[in-house]
UniProtKB/TrEMBL annotation:
Pfam families: Amidase_2. Belongs to the N-acetylmuramoyl-L-alanine amidase 2 family. Residues 43-181 form the N-acetylmuramoyl-L-alanine amidase domain. This is Peptidoglycan-recognition protein. Gene3D superfamilies: Peptidoglycan recognition protein-like. It comes from Psorophora albipes. Residues 1-29 form the signal peptide. Disulfide bonds join C69-C75. PANTHER family: PEPTIDOGLYCAN RECOGNITION PROTEIN, PEPTIDOGLYCAN-RECOGNITION PROTEIN LB. SMART domains: Ami_2, PGRP.
Amino acid sequence: MLMVMTSSGMRSIFIVVSMTLITLKESMACSLPYVGREIWDAKPAKDVQTFPGPIPFVIIHHSYIPAACNTGKECSKAMQVMQEMHQQERGWNDIGYSFAVGGDGRVYEGRGFNVIGAHAPRYNNKSVGICMIGDWRFDLPSEKMIDAVQSLIEYGVRNNIIASNYTLIGHRQTRPTECPGDRLFEEIKTWPHFVDMWDVVDPNTIAT
Ligand SMILES: [Zn+2]
């Protein structure tokens, strides 16, 4: 009898917690289509280190590999593949990016806001790293992918997580890389807050 009551009590607590999480997710979902880590079945981060906001930089990437994904199932798989590559092969704490955007037009949670990333040396503790899943050297991401990135940035600014005077750049402006792909890079030059600044350093010569 005691076990039954305990079990029932625990179930009640579980339901309350679940509903609170759903409420939070729904409040975020009002402004952008969002896929939390538990939805894409993320592995736990090995370590989480935070930095204070508001965040001054937004840095745009492409994944190159994995290729563009079109459904929730494909994009969740792409997230898992990237996390596995970053955690296992590169030995990082977690998937390198703060967020990724899929061809399904949804924002996938990576490390999240205000967590030190592994996507742009010297900028990991002062930026939001957004990966547009796919190879964007020759092709442009779909309008709904671009809209999702803009919605994410707007969400951050509206909630004072991203600085209202943020600077938007591409990965190649911080280190030698073709990322985020020539075609996408031409595109982001037209986005609000893009700054034609070049602060390129060979990451092999610096500590982070
Ligand atoms: Zn990149």
